[in-house]
Design goal:
Helix content is 68%, strand content 0%. It has 173 residues and is an all-alpha fold. Helix 6 packs parallel to helix 8 and helix 8 packs parallel to helix 10. The model has no long low-confidence stretch (mean pLDDT 91).
């Protein structure tokens, strides 16, 4: 009898929990996903939310666990993937697929981010889209040797590389 009551109570609590999640508005879920007190279990729930804006909040959080960020790097929404690219705590495994992302906006975001590892920035210097290459060449994580090589050439980003190189040399790098 005790076992049955306990089971009924657990089922009731589960149903109430599910019902309260369904009753939450998008604004409520966005707010909850951004709260510092939101634990990893709830973050995982919000990382699977039907609304991209909720998932984007999770992708931006520096306290989001690495495995969730890696998963969000494959999100259907380009905004969520771009948010992962700017997360200081995103592991390299989450950034690697974003370098070859189908979305120009995501690749541009990776090229723009000051946390992107230099080897990945170097790959973006060969992106098929000019604005991504141009953004990558001004990223401070481009090795000076690579920047000098591009500046000495005659590619479509050579002038930008020259200016970036001058700035870095003036700034004392």
């Amino acid at each position: 009898m005790k076992h049955i009551l306990r089971t009924v109570l657990l089922i009731s609590m589960l149903l109430f929990s599910i019902q309260s999640v369904w009753a939450e508005s998008i604004d409520d879920r966005i707010r909850a996903a951004g709260l510092p007190s939101t634990n990893a279990v709830d973050l995982l729930k919000y990382a699977k939310d039907s609304d991209w804006q909720v998932r984007e909040v999770v992708a931006k959080r520096q306290t989001t666990p690495s495995d969730i960020l890696i998963s969000l790097a494959k999100d259907p929404s380009w905004q969520v993937r771009a948010a992962v690219s700017h997360n200081l705590k995103a592991p390299k495994a989450a950034i690697i697929p974003l370098v070859n992302d189908e979305s120009v906006d995501v690749r541009f975001s990776v090229a723009h981010c000051g946390y992107t590892p230099s080897d990945l920035i170097v790959k973006l210097l060969n992106d098929p889209v000019f604005k991504v290459r141009k953004q990558a060449v001004v990223n401070l994580n481009v090795p000076l040797s690579v920047l000098k090589e591009i500046a000495a050439g005659n590619s479509d980003i050579a002038d930008t590389a020259k200016k970036a190189l001058e700035k870095r040399l003036i700034d004392g790098e």
